[in-house]
Design a protein that fits this description.
Elements (H helix, E strand, L loop, with lengths): L3 E3 L3 H33 L1 H32 L1 E4 L3 E6 L5 E6 L3 E7 L2 H7 L2 E7 L10 E6 L2 H19 L3 H7 L6 H19 L1
Antiparallel strand pairs: 1-2, 2-3, 3-4, 5-6, 6-7
Helix pairs in contact: 1-2, 1-3
């Protein structure tokens, strides 16, 4: 079994820092604008006070986010195996998520504005049958530097896995003949009875 061990790029951590800095500056800006509106009636002192409070809140958020993002970044790791993808993450509580290829319905690459124009990284989103019809992904491999190579490797292993799991030619011919066995009919009948009971209730 060939296992590919991957860690997110350091550019992902820098992207987080830039994002948190932008959010903190926006908080200060909103506080200043709100202070200006209130200051029209209350005076310049109120504008300054509100701006200072906004700056304090933004500073606390920024410092906390910068520190936590380092620990979060260090906790991230991925494994691309022959039959599944494993994502490890967690600062206090370590989470290990297994995404088996048999359940995968879609794989896509996502790149935001900062990803494309500043840091040249991408996110590999893996969606499974349990997440079909929703906007989210089962798992996301964030901060990938060589995202296209990771995508290609996952697709290659996914095809290899499904090829190994596919039925033999004889089984395919039987399935294509249009015949339904007695066992299948009985199971279908049981399902219909269960549905009928649920509807009647």
């Amino acid at each position: 079994m060939q296992t590919l061990h991957i860690r997110p790029s350091k550019s992902y951590l820098r992207k987080q820092w830039v994002s948190f800095t932008i959010i903190a500056l926006l908080v200060v800006l909103v506080g200043y604008l709100f202070g200006l509106l209130v200051g029209i009636d209350e005076g310049l002192e109120v504008t300054i006070e509100i701006t200072i409070y906004a700056a304090l809140v933004a500073s606390l958020f920024w410092i906390s986010a910068m520190i936590l993002s380092v620990f979060y970044y260090r906790s991230l790791s991925y494994e691309i195996q022959d039959d599944e993808v494993i994502v490890r993450v967690g600062i206090v509580t370590k989470s290990i998520k297994h995404v088996p290829y048999r359940a995968v319905t879609n794989i896509s690459i996502k790149r935001g504005i900062l990803d494309r124009f500043m840091f040249d990284i991408g996110t590999l989103n893996i969606q499974t049958a349990g997440m079909s019809g929703t906007t989210g992904a089962e798992q996301s491999l964030v901060g990938l530097e060589d995202f296209q190579a990771v995508y290609d490797d996952v697709v290659k292993k996914l095809h290899a896995f499904r090829g190994a799991m596919s039925p033999t030619t004889a089984e395919e011919d039987d399935a294509g003949s249009g015949e339904i066995t007695g066992d299948v009919m009985n199971k279908m009948l049981e399902e219909l009875r269960a549905i009928r009971k649920s509807v009647e209730r």
